[in-house]
Amino acid sequence: MLSLVATGFTDGGSLDLSGLPEVFGAERTWRVIGQTFAQAGLATVLSLLLGVPAAYALYRLDFPGRALLQGVLTVPFVLPSVVVGVAFSALLGPGGPLASWGWDQSFIAVVLALAFPNVGVVARTVGGFWSRLDDTSEQAARVLGASRAQAWRMVTLPALGPAIASAAALVFLFCSTSFGVVLILGGTAFANVETEIYRLTVQFLDLRGAAVLSIAQFGIVALALVVSSRLRRAGERAVVLREERGRGERPRRADAPVLVLFGATVLLLHAFPLGALVARSFTGRDGEWTLANYAALADPPPGLPIDGTVVEAIVASLRIAVVAALIAMALGMLLALVLSRRPRAPMLRRGIEAFDGLVMLPLGVSAVTLGFGLLLTMHRPLGIGFDLRTSTALIPIAQALVALPLVVRTLLPVLRGIAPELRDAAASLGAGPFAMLRAIDLPLLGRSAGLALGFAGAASLGEFGATAFLVRPGEQTLPVAVAALIGHPAPGSYGAGLAGAVVLGAVTAGIMLLAERWRTDGAREF
Q1: From the CA atom positions of the chain, what is the Rg in Å?
Q2: What are the residues whose beta carbons fall under 8 Å from the beta carbon of 252, sequence distance 6 or more?
Q3: Is residue 296 part of a domain?
Q4: What is the CATH number of the domain that holds 494?
Q5: What pTM value is reported for the model?
Q6: Domain's final residue, options 262, 281, 300
Q7: How far apart are CA 114 and CA 110, in angstroms?
Q8: Helix residue spans in 417-441 (DSSP H)
Q9: Which domain holds residue 78?
Q10: Which residues have a Cβ under 8 Å from the Cβ of 183 and sit 6 or more positions away?
Q11: Of 334, 471, 338, 314, nearest to 399 (Cα)?
């Protein structure tokens, strides 16, 4: 980030602010910024309208298959943005089931695709809070004559305010920094700041203009992170004052509208685009069912815009994702151990809070900005005698940084839930720090570590924004290969891209569903 600031505000080592009027004086810059806010704002509203009913259905009601649906609703969040963009392209684009609607490469398509993963974010954030909300006040309002809707509006909704506001801040953050979805569905007509940074860098080699836009993007997401962090802490304080909720209620007739809306959300917003993607991956150019698209992954026809085969890209992606996940786990566990400590000194407590915000910075700094910053700085870092930008070493590093906040947010609630008296008792018996770590912290992490590893692996496997800057010819990852195939006019390229997107989505979803089986109650914060 410091290198980006230097690139945007200096020239030849001296202060030069001429880049600011040059970038912000352009009409396209303000149109792109306006589109970023409009896309993110409308997608946030749609995610809230659909996510709050989903939170009620999944966390306040009890019905067969509820636990499975909670896990399924997590999958859209970890699906690579490339897969989401390709799925909506398969649904709305030429030859798709809804092609006649004219929504391909449109603002509506971008908003729907941005809401696709974030409904689950709202459901988990609000639902986790709602499940621990004491309903005594709502019952008292009902006794005093309020209808069920009035009691919810006057009592429950205000109590959910911090969780809803926190979820809205997170969703806006994710939507405003989306890259793959907007790149595939929006093109140049509906670009956001992310895709504009990429365009300035790759197509026009305008590093200074891209740096100025990156700094503006960083300011936007930093503000959203601050708001989200404060609202999340307010929600956590509210939860402490309320009792833990047990099993949910059996659905009643009055819950039918909520359940219908939730079912329609899962079916139309989630299942329909993914179903269209899978169906079209088995469809040939003449509409016949075929396996030719999948055969092209191992034996691509001439003219495809990839180096080697898609199978080689799959193997490279898995290898890089494993390295990135291990890096993220090692760093994340160390950071979570530090952040879980509750020092008595006020200055140390404030230091821990500030450090917590710093650790979460990669979640707010867009992946495109991260990749651009690494591209600027990793020529000979720390005196290393070779240029890291010419190797694949930067890709797992960038992916690990993207996954790091997810690992920390998964492990941290478990470690914070350990009673300080337990460590005090161990210390009084003569246990040292490493003995307490081995006997107390690591065993209690248990399955949460498996969930964190799953998050890290899935996020690394599907990472696209930073990797698009850092990938080298002949070393394409699967998301980069899929994006290249989808946008190329060569015969068979689009079909191979659809098949590659199905493979990428299936592997990512499988990793996440397996990790969900290791989830514990303490690992629900994120």
Answers
A1: 24
A2: none
A3: yes
A4: 1.10.3720.10
A5: 0.82
A6: 281
A7: 6
A8: 420-428, 433-436
A9: 1-281
A10: 85, 194, 195, 198, 483
A11: 471
Helix (H, G, I), strand (E, B) or coil at 205: coil
Place of tokens 């085969």: 309
Co-location of 445 and 477 in the same domain:
yes
- Say whether both 305 and 241 belong to one domain: no
* Residue 287 placed within a domain: no
Q: Answer whether residue 286 is part of any domain.
A: no
In a shared domain, residues 343 and 454: yes
Q: Is there a single domain that holds both residue 274 and residue 301?
A: no
Residue 488 included in any domain: yes
One domain, residues 179 and 274: yes
Phi/psi at 283 (nearest 5 deg)?
Answer: -110, 135
- Is residue 8 a contact partner of residue 211, using CB atoms and an 8 Å limit? yes
Of 475, 464, 481, 496, whose CA–CA distance to 398 is shortest?
Answer: 464
> What are the angstrom distances between the C-alpha of 240 and each of 27, 147, 251, 417, 523?
49, 28, 27, 12, 16
What is the distance between the alpha carbons of residues 211 and 226, in angstroms, rounded to a whole number?
22
Asked whether residue 297 falls in the same domain as residue 384, the answer is yes
Class of residue 520 by CB neighbours under 10 A (exposed 0-12, middle 13-18, buried 19+):
middle
Query: Domain check: are 42 and 131 in the same one?
Result: yes
Identify whether residues 65 and 108 lie together within a single domain.
yes
The residue from 255, 281, 307 where one domain ends is 281
Judge contact between 389 and 379, C-beta under 8 A: yes
One-letter amino acid at 213 equals: L
The one-digit pLDDT tens for each residue of the chain (526 residues) are 777 778 777 777 777 777 788 888 888 888 998 999 999 999 999 999 999 999 988 888 887 877 778 777 877 887 888 999 999 999 998 888 999 998 988 999 999 999 999 998 899 888 877 777 767 777 777 777 777 777 777 777 777 777 888 788 889 988 888 888 998 998 888 889 888 888 888 778 787 888 888 888 877 777 776 776 676 566 554 444 444 455 567 777 877 888 899 999 999 999 999 999 999 999 887 778 889 999 988 888 888 888 788 888 899 899 999 999 999 999 988 888 888 877 778 888 888 878 877 777 776 677 787 888 888 787 766 666 667 777 778 889 889 988 888 888 888 877 777 767 777 777 777 777 777 777 777 777 766 787 788 888 888 888 888 888 788 766 788 898 898 888 888 888 899 999 999 999 999 888 877 776 655 444 444 3
Number of structural domains, the chain?
2
